[in-house]
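Lay summary. Proteins are chains of building blocks that fold into shapes, and those shapes determine what they do. In this project we predict the shape from the chain. Here is one chain we studied, written as its sequence of building blocks.
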Amino acid sequence: MLQSESFQNYMRARDAEKDIREKFSQTLEHVRLSIASFDNRYPLGDDITVTPVDAGGVPSEWVVPANARAERVILYIHGGCYVSGSPVTVRECASRIGRAADARVLNIDYRLAPEHPFPAALDDTLIAYRWLLAEGYEAKNIVLAGESAGGGLTIAALMKIRDDGDLPMPALGVPISPWIDMTMDHKTLTTNVGRDIASTTPLFIGAKLYVGEGDPKGPYVSPLFGDLTGLPPLLIQVGGGEVLLDDGIAIAHKARREGVDVTFEVWPHQTHVWHWFATELEDAAQAIGAIGDYIKARMD
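And here is the predicted shape, written in a compact code that computers can read:
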């Protein structure tokens, strides 16, 4: 497994030889097919309805459990290293989170790199949030949540909402296994390889293609290098065996230092976004239950 410094040297050599998008086209396709293999892997509960919707120009879907409160919405942002994934990939997991939180879920299909590098995914997230407000949903009843890259986008979107200053802040943020550092310089990226279902290679590919010619330390690209003051309360969940464990630890500690109300949970031995496997994994069901309890305790 390549270390961060050696990977950068490797990438420089590859860039000198040929354009990065062409060099990684086959690998990118593999990443996309791998993530897509989770599409519809688990059936939805009979209490769930799914309705396509255009959220201000962002293709999305309403995922609504029967117990959802009409006014409560989770804007859910899927993962996939910024280059793959879709609402279909996370639909079943999102439906469970909605059910646990008594909430409707707006499951968004943001644009992917390399066809649409930064800031396309962030822009689409904010467009969908503006659409929710325009539809009459109040910020105090909206939660931003997402896993992996979607967890990073959750924090980046909250920062952008704060900085732009023309929109009210959502009530809560729930980053799950968040990816918050595009410099790829955390030790668990190597020490937890083999313990996690995720590998670091798709992350390296995603970071390069998402950032493009931009700055990997830009605050909206890598929230770890941004200012987190003024963000709403956050529930951050990470697995003790995942390669992004250090990302979760780092952003939780930084947010606390900067005055954010943070609830931080490390689930021992669990892998990256273990929540996907709630059908067969008790810890996944319990983690989703904890998300629901957190949202209801803060919003009821």
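What the prediction tells us: The beta strands are 48-55, 58-65, 69-77, 103-108, 142-147, 172-176, 234-239, 262-267.
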